[in-house]
Each structure stands twice: as structure tokens, then as C-alpha cells.
Design goal:
Structural class: alpha+beta
Radius of gyration: 11 Å
Largest sheet: 5 strands, antiparallel
Strand content: 35-45%
Distance between the termini: 10 Å
Number of helices: 1
Helix content: 10-25%
Strand order of the largest sheet: 1-2-3-4-5
Number of strands: 5
Oligomer: single chain
Number of domains: 1
Order of helices and strands: EEEEEH
Shape: globular
Length: about 80
């Protein structure tokens, strides 16, 4: 699916090309350091996260933003 970028407040979700569903790198906005990953399966609505040690809160914040995206009309694309 085509990557979509999301601003999640303190974190920037950079869209990553994916064959099925959506994927994002969760990045620190100033340095661009990737601290977590989030994926969304649009068929099931399942959101999966993977975070580096110490960045579980960033992954959860990103997952919440992805849920809002999935629940919006844009998530139906």
C-alpha cells in the first residue's frame, strides 16, 4: 500500500512501503532516529507495534494515532 505520513505529536510516523497493509517507522522528529515500528492490517484492523528498549510509550502513542487514522475516512483508502 502507498505510504502515509502521520504527525503523532511528539513523534513523527514516516510511512514505509508495504505490500499488504500500512507500516510506519516511529521517529524522533528532530534527529529522525527510528525508535519503534507500527503496522496496520486494514482488513482486520489489527495494529502491531515493535519498540526499542525504553520507547514503549512512543510505540503506544503511535498506535493510538494509527487507530485514529484507521477510524477516519482516510483509513478506508
Amino acid at each position: 500500500m502507498e505510504p502515509v505520513e502521520i504527525n503523532a505529536g511528539a513523534w513523527y510516523l514516516r510511512g514505509v512501503p508495504a505490500d499488504v497493509g500500512y507500516r510506519w517507522d516511529v521517529c524522533e522528529p528532530i534527529t529522525g532516529q527510528v525508535v519503534a515500528e507500527v503496522s496496520l492490517d486494514p482488513r482486520s484492523g489489527l495494529i502491531d507495534t515493535k519498540a526499542q528498549s525504553g520507547y514503549a510509550e512512543a510505540a503506544q502513542t503511535a498506535a493510538d494515532a494509527v487507530r485514529r487514522f484507521a477510524d477516519s475516512p482516510f483509513g478506508d483508502a
